[in-house]
User: Which sequence fits this backbone?
């Protein structure tokens, strides 16, 4: 019994099912099914590991319900015909064998069809903006006829029966996130003037019909839940009052629980929120709904740490928590929390780099930026080293600490050399802005991990003499800021972005930031939000070219709320004593400033590695020392080298 999280680890019921704790794996498409929607061995391996991590119930990702227009994405899981049942039964059995309850979400994608192929079905001919930008008129949905709506209602019921037949113990209707049912519910996407449009009663009709058809087919005792967005966050969409009315109507029909999320794919930052958005981002909606119903409510979205989950349960904002990305960053999140070891949990930092970016925008199977094992379960397992070595890791940044952890767990003798007094490398500077606070628990987790493993950290810059007795050297030597050959950049008013973030340099009131990449934009935003007058100068036509889509959207919104000026297609010509001279479209002008912040990129530090290799030493490069990148690059390169030695 957990002393730290007693409410989170108390059993509770959904319908006639008893869940051993309050943790439910939120459904998340993985892109790991076959092209015909059937289950793959890879998918089974992935869910086995998720289930073994201790969540009471796993809600398997959305499965499409018919072979007409419900399939949304590449390698999307299917439950549209009986051919899918054998694979689904295999999947359900594997989840149950690991001690978790197998559940599955069933879905019709409506207008949000990533595949972009017709038929795209929706209540009205209003396309999903992303698809419209990609495909134009091809993206305009077909407005469903009444007969077609009825076919879809029956397809939901048939799919639920298949889920039950396959051995799933609960079925969840996907009624959230901008898919078909929300297309009916939201006035943004429903312009019908028949029985399915207009009034709230009409807009919620399909939800009730779907539920009734399912109930008729699965019987009175089989648990059925629904996922709802508290609001779609669209200016002319639906609000929490509408969702409360829908929740009450579903409750009176007999639904067993409500799983509350938020947003649609157009307002993705409210659904799969990046780290600059609030934690527990949609819990407010779960709480508002819970006050109005008697059935269990599952709160979900950005519940990254067990203390947040415990607070939600203990303060009755929700009866359960739905965790998505946190169980990718660390599938053993529930087990570690239940053993009162929250410090051992590798916390999701809501970077979206490994998961959302890869699957929604790059058509790959999901992974996690911090956990390359996701989608490679069984392939990238840590195995004892065939020959124990003495390994030196140079640098205690994210890559160095991860490589040290992996090598130590494999049985090697590991020593870290770190020249700075603090551990964490550039993650320390990266975590300074309040909107990047999620990185702080990650650094804490890494430091705790190396301390618990007893890995010594020598506080000095390693020389080749220090390294002569080591069998292998892993160079996690990081990167340094690029120094441009531009007149005046050696003046007193010039500082590097990292020096501003780590407070080595105190910035003045009036600041010009040069370089609108990730570091420059974040530094400018941080300074602007802290009361400085900031102008951001970028040579390219756009800022934040190397930023994850959800960060770009969230930062753009944030920047618009500050008085920060952004000058694109503008080049730094010279730094002068009281500002800078910039050039745009052939015209030069002066921008007054008392501090000029340079964020012109980083370059890898490889000299130690080069020298070791030249002398025939076994040496490896990881993280920024390979190529300046993101935290995901640090963790992935470190894990792979740690596995190889
Ligand atoms: C790659 C990816 C796939 C997702 N697929 C689904 C899905 O199939 N069904 C669903 O209801 N939500 C889906 N979601 C939303 C998640 O269930 C969850 O609500 C969201 O990630 C925020 O919660 P978290 O912070 O716990 O991850 C998906 C999210 C991601 C990142
Ligand atoms: S890739 Fe980033 S956001 Fe996605 S699960 Fe991993 S840490 Fe979380």
Assistant:
């Amino acid at each position: 019994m957990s002393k730290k999280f007693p409410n989170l680890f108390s059993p509770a019921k959904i319908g006639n099912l008893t869940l051993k704790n309050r943790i439910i794996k939120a459904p998340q498409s993985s892109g790991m099914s076959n092209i015909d929607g059937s289950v793959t061995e890879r998918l089974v391996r992935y869910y086995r590991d998720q289930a073994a991590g201790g969540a009471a119930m796993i809600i398997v990702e959305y499965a499409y319900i018919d072979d007409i227009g419900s399939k949304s994405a590449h390698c999307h899981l299917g439950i549209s015909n009986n051919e899918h049942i054998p694979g689904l039964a295999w999947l359900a059995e594997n989840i149950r064998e690991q001690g978790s309850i197998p559940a599955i979400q069933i879905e019709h994608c409506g207008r949000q069809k990533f595949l972009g192929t017709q038929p795209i079905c929706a209540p009205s001919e209003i396309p999903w903006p992303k698809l419209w930008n990609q495909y134009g008129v091809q993206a305009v949905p077909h407005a469903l006829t009444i007969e077609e709506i009825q076919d879809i209602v029956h397809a939901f019921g048939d799919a639920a029966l298949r889920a039950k037949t396959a051995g799933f113990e609960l079925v969840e209707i996907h009624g959230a996130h901008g898919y078909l049912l929300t297309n009916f519910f939201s006035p943004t996407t429903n312009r019908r003037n028949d029985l399915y449009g207009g009034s709230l009663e009409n807009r919620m009709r399909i939800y009730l019909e779907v539920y009734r058809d399912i109930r008729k087919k699965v019987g009175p005792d089989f648990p059925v839940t629904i996922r709802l967005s508290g609001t779609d966050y669209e200016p002319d969409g639906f609000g929490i009052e509408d969702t409360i009315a829908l929740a009450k109507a579903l409750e009176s029909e007999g639904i067993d629980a409500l799983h509350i999320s938020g947003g649609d794919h157009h307002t993705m930052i409210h659904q799969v929120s990046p780290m600059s958005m609030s934690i527990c981002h949609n819990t407010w909606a779960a709480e508002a709904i819970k006050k109005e119903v008697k059935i269990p409510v599952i709160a979900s979205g950005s519940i990254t740490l067990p203390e947040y989950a415990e607070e939600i349960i203990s303060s009755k904002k929700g009866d359960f928590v739905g965790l998505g990305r946190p169980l990718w960053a660390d599938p053993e999140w529930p087990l570690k929390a239940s053993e009162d070891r929250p410090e051992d949990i590798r916390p999701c930092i809501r970077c979206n780099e490994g998961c959302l970016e890869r699957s929604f925008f790059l058509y790959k199977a999901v992974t996690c930026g911090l956990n390359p094992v996701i989608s490679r379960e069984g392939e990238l397992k840590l195995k004892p080293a065939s020959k124990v070595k003495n390994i030196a890791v140079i640098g205690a940044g994210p890559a160095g600490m991860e490589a040290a952890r992996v090598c130590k767990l494999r049985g090697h003798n590991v020593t870290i050399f770190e020249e700075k007094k603090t551990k964490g490398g550039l993650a320390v500077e990266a975590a300074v802005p309040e909107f990047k606070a999620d990185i702080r628990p990650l650094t804490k987790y890494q430091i705790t991990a190396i301390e618990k493993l007893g890995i010594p950290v020598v506080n000095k810059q390693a020389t080749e003499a220090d390294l002569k007795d080591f069998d292998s050297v892993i160079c996690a030597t990081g990167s340094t800021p690029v120094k441009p050959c531009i007149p005046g950049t050696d003046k007193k008013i010039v500082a590097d972005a990292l020096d501003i973030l780590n407070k080595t340099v105190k910035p003045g009131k009036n600041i010009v930031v040069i370089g609108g990449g990730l570091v420059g934009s974040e530094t400018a935003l941080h300074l602007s939000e802290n009361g400085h007058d900031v102008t951001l100068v970028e040579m390219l036509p756009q800022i934040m070219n190397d930023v994850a889509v959800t960060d770009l959207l969230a930062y753009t919104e944030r920047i618009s709320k500050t008085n920060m000026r952004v000058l694109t297609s503008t080049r730094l010509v010279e730094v002068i004593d009281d500002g800078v001279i910039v050039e745009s479209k052939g015209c030069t002008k002066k921008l007054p400033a008392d501090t000029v912040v340079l964020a012109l990129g980083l370059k890898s530090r490889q000299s130690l590695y080069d020298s070791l290799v030249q002398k025939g030493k076994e040496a490896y490069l990881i993280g920024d020392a390979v190529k300046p990148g993101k935290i995901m690059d640090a963790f992935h390169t470190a894990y792979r080298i740690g596995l190889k030695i």
